[in-house]
Amino acid sequence: MQKFFLIFLFFGTTLLAQIPKGYCKPMKVEADPSSKSKLTIKFINPQGKPATSHVAFRINGDSLVQPEIDKTGTYVMKLNPGTYTFNFFVKYWYDVNSKPITLKPKTNTFITVKFEAVEIGSSPVK
Fold first, then answer.
1. How far apart are CA 96 and CA 24, in angstroms?
2. Which of 31, 61, 78, 104 is the one with CA 20 to 30 A from 18?
3. What does pTM read for this prediction?
4. How many CB atoms are closer than 10 A to CB 28?
């Protein structure tokens, strides 16, 4: 019985560890005539469709942004050139943290943010 419990515990934690929790991927960088850096963010919901509302994010753990997202799930913003980290969040979905993203002047950087739903009872909801 104890061996069964240990095997169950091992496989249970292995399966839970493999649940995808979303991602933030830089997709491409294009030239842009603006002197600032442009960032184009595409938000995707857990069903693979555009996420168009209730999204918010923090830039460098400080500035809160509640973007106006178009019907395709896209939001465009201009920032000063530099390196930024982002924390994207939506209630009932896992938070998605970016790795540091370096934005250069006169470029448009495209990133895709894919959210995954939180399992009921697995973690507290904001």
1. 7
2. 61
3. 0.79
4. 9
